[in-house]
């Protein structure tokens, strides 16, 4: 049994789960919704009209920030993106302006936090619905370095509350990313980079995808929790499929078609036209290239990862992107 210091603390002082979650929710200071609406529009206008907008630096001492600046210039046509060399002064200034509250003056022991991260995305670093004052007491529960039962519970509760408050703005942001065909643009941009090796390009691609990802929107009670957005999409889909396998759950044939039929997979999950989510693995086929399509490895190696559904074994595609998460959430939640 794992000993969780958070859990031990809460038990020691007899703090009930509901009270803990409610106090956390009520103590976080968000930007008022009317100001969010006004400042979100202002931020979008500045980006579109090539005006000054800030992002956090990228790489050690910001040495690779040019990658993000060049990408933003190419995709969003803005050449006036500035680097916040202090890493957080712009969000602090914005939050002070939007809430009329200042740390050390009229509030104490609060931390400026980016709710969804993505701090190298100009739509998110100064974003009024992506920044909040979080009590330092609760800040450890929201960080990437924290894990465990109570962290999971707080993050699910907290992120759902953020969605309830700001869903219309989150959907607007998601639409901007989709309209700009962000995943394909990232792939094209990285492929055309000169002077970098494949390992560096892979790292750049992962960081770009992480900073320009779609934000998963869920409803209370969904099987897939909001905090799964922190798990990489490939692992999220594979772990969820593996759970179906372990439960020996028979998937309705109509629902299975969305995973294995190229056309239906493309229509439902927005996969590439010839790459359905799952490809049947032929154990009698001695070829070591079943996971290759058009000369490229498009599916996970069957010697390491396969999924067994309805008595058949499948390989799972490597070509999964953050914007597809909401479609997988929908598919899992509609399983009969």
Structure explained in plain terms:
With 336 residues, this protein is mainly alpha-helical. The protein folds into 2 domains: 5-179, no CATH class; 231-333, no CATH class. 46% of the residues lie in helices and 10% in strands. It is built from 13 helices and 10 strands. The protein has helices spanning 5-12, 17-27, 33-48, 65-76, 89-99, 139-142, 149-179, 182-191, 198-211, 233-246, 253-260, 262-269, 325-333, and strands at residues 29-30, 53-55, 81-83, 110-114, 131-135, 278-280, 292-293, 296-297, 307-309, 312-316. The chain has a 3-stranded antiparallel β-sheet, sandwiched between helices. A 3-stranded antiparallel β-sheet has the order 6-10-9. Strands 2-3 form a two-stranded parallel ribbon. Strand 9 (307-309) and strand 10 form a beta hairpin. The radius of gyration is 22 Å and the shape is globular. The relative contact order is 0.10.
